[in-house]
Specification:
elongated; CBS-domain
Length: 151
């Protein structure tokens, strides 16, 4: 399974802000849409990522109505490509402690995958494989020539 497969199932809805957005407004957007990250776009290009982690850290550094997104955002977030394999993506997320990763095709943002999206995709793939294996075992052909029983 590849990143492109997960994106296909997840869909392409993205929530974005600009670097000059007031942090309290960005936090309100995250809460309103029940998302843990926002893509920071500047002039149609990925400028950074804002996650709930940065918002929580900012709470200790001042008034969220006085801070802008660009003062706390991740400026160079870890990224992956659509052809990244799911195992490589999981390793990348674990090694970088990233819960949200933008998927880039060159300079084009295709979507953002969360750790939750990846976990759901892996579980669904494993469930499918388990169903197929159980169906295979259930339909196992009977051997007509059973081994002779010892007397």
């Amino acid at each position: 399974m590849q990143v492109t497969d997960i994106l296909r199932v997840k869909g392409g809805t993205l929530f974005t802000v600009t670097p000059d957005t007031v942090l309290s407004e960005a936090a309100r957007t995250m809460a309103q849409h029940d998302v843990g990250s926002l893509v920071v776009m500047d002039g149609g290009r990925l400028s950074g990522m804002l996650t709930f982690r940065e918002v929580i850290v900012a709470l200790g550094h001042g008034d969220l109505t006085q801070l802008r997104v660009d003062s706390v955002m991740q400026r160079q977030p870890v990224q992956c490509s659509p052809d990244t394999g799911v195992d490589a993506l999981r390793r990348l997320m674990l090694d970088s402690h990233a819960r949200y990763i933008p998927v880039m095709d060159g300079a084009t943002l295709l979507g953002v995958l969360s750790f939750h999206d990846v976990a759901r995709a892996v579980v669904e793939e494993q469930d499918f494989e388990n169903r197929m294996l159980k169906a295979y075992i259930r339909d196992w052909p009977q051997d007509d020539a059973a081994p002779a029983q010892p007397s």
